[in-house]
TrEMBL record, chain A:
Its cofactor is [3Fe-4S] cluster. Ferredoxins are iron-sulfur proteins that transfer electrons in a wide variety of metabolic reactions. This is Ferredoxin. It comes from Streptomyces kasugaensis. The keyword Electron transport applies.
Length: 69, 414
């Protein structure tokens, strides 16, 4: 999984930080999202997916790594 | 005809196939079910989720009642939050006066202007800033309980705890003197009452605005660390713009959390098994607060928007220029997202609720609201092991008449 955020879209509601605090944080100067870990370990994927689902501004995009064959 | 009679008289089926009569909105809750959305609106969610409604002045609007559809509307910039656009739905003449007579605050603006103003405030309410306030909020909560219980065995939870706690916190954050709380709480009450006449609303609104303009001016000479002072110091806004933001934060900052605190307490007292579960395992508190936000949804009359283009929502085309009310209380009972949604379950994962709205306007203060509610509920349950209602449930005065739902008072004993 690769995590992308759109800082232009972000409205600073902070729900991603509550869902996945090891992956998302907020910039000190304006509370806009920053990514702490763009390739989080598997055990955090569910929390990251929840963060993306509840983001009010649809500012979190998740790129799933293709399955290895 | 009362609201209830209007609903009873309103056609619920289809008079002409595919053209059911519009629903009179707001509709009344069912007797004895003060925590549940109005049956007519919840019925619409199941039967015709995007439905026509008629407001108090006969004007038409659309009700959007399902969870996904509400997210679709509130997340779509083609739906405008600008109340000055024709077709924007108002719940009362008083609220129309409030929203249109004064200069707009950011909740009634669209991006990019909305985003520019909001970003001046987001850092103040971000998660780590608010989490750092926990010890202060806890101290305030404990002090209030100390005072409430000192030599007494009963009190009104609203005036002694639920209202002062968030008022003290927002005053600290804004740099508003708490001694003035009678003044701003009374004006807020008038502004948010669905019974206030337009002229009362205008007077209260102007008084609150003038108060905040004077406060902003005073911060220029005597700056402090509060939000009002820092907005003045930025130099990007004039005093009136600062006052507009301050008024919004002052009202939103105390009315909402106050009502959630009292209503949550009552809902837990009415659901003793859930109350016992939370007492037994206080680590459930964060999830329990999300569930209470979902179940109670105090912005009970919905969130207004107006379509700027033709947009199809849930298979229904909403034409440009027509108003929409997103009924977030029915969305938060949507079984597709919250199975058994009419039941309060403190161990449910309720994080997808839309009690704070959705889209770029979603509540700016939600991290603060969460911390306040977690501390308020946890503190009451811990400090008052014998907590109980001190009047018959039927006698609790619910805020059917207010824009923010809750209870006017909550007599408790311990």
């Amino acid at each position: 999984m690769r995590v992308h955020v759109d800082q232009e879209k972000c409205c600073g509601a902070g729900s991603c930080v509550l869902s996945a605090p090891d992956v998302f944080d907020q910039r000190d100067e304006d509370g806009i999202v920053i990514v702490l870990d763009a390739q989080p370990p598997a055990e955090l994927h569910e929390a990251v997916r929840e963060a993306a689902a509840i983001c009010p501004a649809a500012a979190i995009l998740l790129e799933q790594a293709p399955e290895r064959v | 005809m009362t609201t209830a009679e209007r609903i009873a008289a309103a056609p619920t089926g289809t008079e002409t196939a595919g053209h059911p009569g519009p629903l009179a909105y707001p509709a009344a809750r069912a007797a004895g079910c003060p925590f549940d959305p109005a049956p007519a609106v919840d019925h619409a969610r199941r039967e015709q989720p995007v439905t026509r409604a008629t407001l108090w002045d006969g004007s038409p609007c659309w009700l959007v009642t399902r969870h996904q559809d509400v997210r679709d509307v509130l997340g779509d910039p083609r739906f405008s939050a600008e109340a000055t656009r024709p077709g924007f739905p108002f719940l009362t003449a008083g609220l129309r006066e409030l929203i249109t007579s004064t200069s707009s605050s950011l909740i009634r603006m669209d991006d990019p202007e909305h985003a520019r103003l909001r970003r001046m405030l987001t850092a103040d309410f971000m998660v780590k800033k608010v989490e750092a306030m926990r010890p202060d909020v806890q101290r305030l909560a404990d002090d209030l309980v100390d005072r409430m219980t000192d030599g007494r065995t009963s009190a009104d939870l609203v005036t002694e705890f639920a209202l002062p706690l968030p008022s003290l916190v927002i005053c600290l954050l804004l740099g508003v003197p708490y001694e003035d709380h009678d003044f701003f709480q009374e004006r807020s009450r008038v502004l948010l009452s669905l019974r206030s006449a337009p002229e009362e609303v205008r007077t209260s609104s102007d008084e609150l605005f003038d108060y905040l303009v004077r406060l902003a001016e005073s911060k220029q000479h005597e700056p402090d660390d509060g939000i009002v002072s820092r907005l003045v110091a930025r130099g990007e806004l004039d005093f009136e713009e600062v006052a507009n933001m301050g008024r919004l934060l002052l009202i939103a900052g105390h009315e909402t959390t106050a009502n959630m605190t009292a209503l949550s307490t009552l809902a837990l007292l009415r659901n003793p098994a859930q109350l016992a579960k939370l007492r037994e395992d206080p680590s459930l508190i964060k999830g329990a607060v999300e569930e209470l936000l979902r179940y109670l949804t105090i912005v009970h009359n919905g969130v207004s928007r107006v379509a700027t283009e033709d947009v199809t929502i849930g298979g229904q085309t909403i034409p440009a220029g027509e108003g929409v009310l997103c009924t977030i209380n029915t969305a938060n009972r949507d079984d597709a997202v919250f199975p058994g949604g009419d039941t309060l379950d403190v161990s449910r994962d309720a994080r997808r609720h839309v009690a704070f709205g959705f889209g770029v306007h979603q509540c700016l203060g939600q991290p603060l609201a969460r911390v306040e509610l977690q501390i308020a509920v946890e503190t009451l349950l811990r400090r008052l092991p014998g907590l109980r209602l001190d009047v018959p449930f039927e006698d609790v005065p619910f805020r059917h008449d207010m824009a923010i739902y809750g209870v006017h008072s909550l007599p408790i004993a311990w």
